[in-house]
Design a protein that fits this description.
The protein is mostly helical. It contains 9 helices and 4 strands.
Length: about 240
């Protein structure tokens, strides 16, 4: 808790700086210049790729900070709804596998009953899963249960766009069933991604294979323009509930 408080105190000056309109405008102008450089064919591919990765990390920091600020009131409302419906815990913390196989803890608003896997062990969610609470069903349909992962993005464990991080138990199993599966671990996992906006939650191995094809497509074509396209599709998923259980 003490370490988390130190991190929060560290980013408070940054939040205050970004809240001033003239500073935010300067940041947006810088992104426009970098976007031009990234799409300029006169730069070698390696330089453009390095610039893309640097810009992506900078974007992750700015967007996660802005998201935390803008969505804080909504987070309070969601927390209150979860508490009224099912008391604590408000948040669900779970281990996931990130880039290069590094395990980290992911944060979500709890959408299932307490101790949902006490008797079953690690399992995928199913359609109309009885473990999902009424409020949780709304959160999962709109993907609002994922909002706390903005802190994972800010900490550098995730990116705004990339393959979804999977649980260690499932990663071990999927490595055996799908030989190419470990390739997706070359990228930092994302809050949203090409697979997430085109397919539903994983419920079986076939769902994983479909999403894996999207992950590989993203790896080959990743660019700032593709990231912006995925963001636009993500908004549509949130508004329509497409793909959620």
């Amino acid at each position: 808790v003490r370490n988390n408080n130190k991190r929060i105190l560290t980013i408070l000056p940054v939040i205050g700086w970004l809240s001033r309109t003239e500073n935010l405008g300067s940041v947006l102008l810088l992104f426009q210049v970098l976007f031009y450089l990234l799409t300029c064919p006169f730069f070698p591919h390696k330089i453009r790729n390095d610039m893309y990765l640097a810009l992506k990390r900078a974007s992750d920091i700015v967007l996660s900070l802005l998201g935390i600020i803008a969505l804080f009131p909504l987070g309070i409302i969601i927390s209150a709804m979860i508490f009224i419906e099912n008391r604590r815990p408000i948040f669900f913390i779970q281990e996931r596998v990130g880039k290069a196989g590094k395990v980290f803890k992911i944060y979500k608003f709890r959408s299932m009953i307490k101790n949902a896997e006490r008797h079953s062990g690690p399992v995928w969610a199913i359609k109309d899963d009885p473990r999902i609470t009424p409020i949780g069903r709304i959160l999962r349909k709109t993907r609002l249960d994922e909002l706390p992962q903005l802190f994972n993005v800010l900490r550098g464990e995730m990116s705004m766009v990339g393959p979804r991080p999977e649980r260690p138990e499932f990663v071990d199993m999927l490595k055996q069933k799908i030989p190419d599966y470990p390739k997706r671990l070359q990228l930092k996992p994302g809050l949203t991604g090409l697979a997430q906006v085109n397919h539903r939650y994983d419920t079986c191995i076939d769902d994983v294979r479909k999403k894996l094809a999207c992950d590989f497509e993203y790896m080959k074509k990743q660019s700032l323009l593709l990231d912006l396209t995925i963001f636009a599709k993500t908004v549509n998923v949130i508004l329509t509930g497409k793909g959620a259980h």
